[in-house]
Amino acid sequence: MNVRVISPSTIKQEFQRIDVHPEGIRLMEPKTRLYCVKVSGINVKQANVLKQEALAIGGDAAIPYSVLNLENKQVDVILMATIKQYKKLAEKLKKQFFNLQEVGKNIIKTIEHFENIPSTISTSKKTIRINDFMIMGILNITPDSFSDGGKYYGDVSLAVDRAVEMEQQGASIIDIGGESSRPKSHGIDENEEIKRVIPVIKAVRKKIRCLISCDTSRARVAEMALEEGADIINDVYALRRDKKLCRIVAEKKCTLVLMHMKGTPDTMQENPYYEDVVGEICEFFRERIDFAMENGIEKQKIILDPGIGFGKRLIDNLEIIHRLREFTCFGLPLLLGTSRKSFIGKLSNDIPPEQRLPGTIASCVFGYLAGARIFRVHDVKEVVQALRVVSGIENYGKNKNSGT
């Protein structure tokens, strides 16, 4: 007799291996997926009903002690159930009071986002399917970026050659930026940023077919970049620096990256602190998405970036990457930017940026398994190879079942 635990990702394949009837597989496979869902900011009446209904369908719910005594007005609840049980719960909540119908809908929608990682990005011209992953190659036109500052600064032809090279190596997006956002950086004049990036975007657009992203938080720079052929605005301030930028993005219907940053590049590493880093970033994203949509930006045009290294300690960066999948609750693509960053150096005896490729690859591989699908990197060729391998391994069961 042999007894072993089966990996959840291969359970369907194992059912087929022991010759379970297809209808049996359809009915039983959902029972194998257990989800812990956190519902935040509900009142005590809602929490008590959720607990009762979760138990009734065979699941469970963790609630605060204070709920029993009706001490707090707003509380959090953690539900535990299979997808099949959650569907039953959602049906039962339709008949409940206290606006629990909406809670049920949101639970099912969130689980669907968690299970089905968003696989498309929308530009002003088309919707692009993400085939496993996309690489965003970094092209800094700056003299002071933390890793490659000065390498392509002041030489348009050299910058164009690098963009072409990255596209040939597998980049789907070239991210062009003229203002460093490294810790302690003070920013530059708007005219200087235009002088740096617009000629490069114009020249690069003539030489490559892949998407172009402009790493800027200024409306005038963004407008000029889009006019010269950029497809994406990558804003590290998430529409908080220039009030006019939101209007430009909405009018041009371009793709927008909203990144989380605590503070500004000048101040972000001055003793950053979080009570719940993932929860706080989720709240930030929720508020920023709502703001963008209220100002005319379509939700499907948004990409989310949790901002590794932007106002985070080492423990924050590690927790964000470890729990990256939780950010899929918004149903939007996740961008991960870990390339050569300081947390890799801190985990590796303080090695300098140019020696952090292995750590970059490791963090991208983990990020892929955790739900990221767009990776902003300096070393395109090496990361592409690593992600192709991990994608092949991760999707082995799916590909085998489909005959590919």
If you had to describe this structure to a student in words, what would you say it looks like?
The protein has helices at 11-17, 22-28, 44-56, 65-68, 83-93, 100-115, 156-169, 190-205, 219-227, 245-252, 277-294, 314-322, 342-346, 357-369, 380-394, 396-402, and strands spanning 34-43, 60-62, 74-82, 120-122, 127-129, 134-140, 173-177, 211-215, 232-235, 255-259, 302-305, 335-336, 374-377. The chain is of the alpha/beta class. The strands form three sheets. Strands 11-10-9-8-7-6-13-12 form an eight-stranded parallel β-sheet. Helix 8 (190-205) runs parallel beside helix 9 (219-227), helix 9 (219-227) packs parallel to helix 10 (245-252) and helix 14 runs parallel beside helix 15. The longest helix is centred in the last third of the chain and has 18 residues, at 277-294. The chain is globular. The protein starts with 10 loop residues before the first helix and ends with a helix.
Describe this protein with a few key phrases.
globular; eight-stranded parallel β-sheet; alpha/beta; 13 strands
Beta-strand percent range = 15-25%
Major beta sheet, strand line-up: 11-10-9-8-7-6-13-12
Please tell me what the overall shape is.
globular
H/E series:
HHEHEHEHHEEEHEHEHEHEHEHEHHEHH
According to DSSP, the number of beta strands is: 13
User: What is the mean pLDDT?
Assistant: 92
For the termini, the CA-CA separation is 34 Å
The biggest beta sheet, please? Answer: 8 strands, parallel
| Number of helical stretches of at least 4 residues | 16
Given as residue ranges, the uncertain stretches (5+ residues, pLDDT < 50) are none
Radius of gyration: 23 Å
Global structural class: alpha/beta
Estimate percent helicity: 40-55%
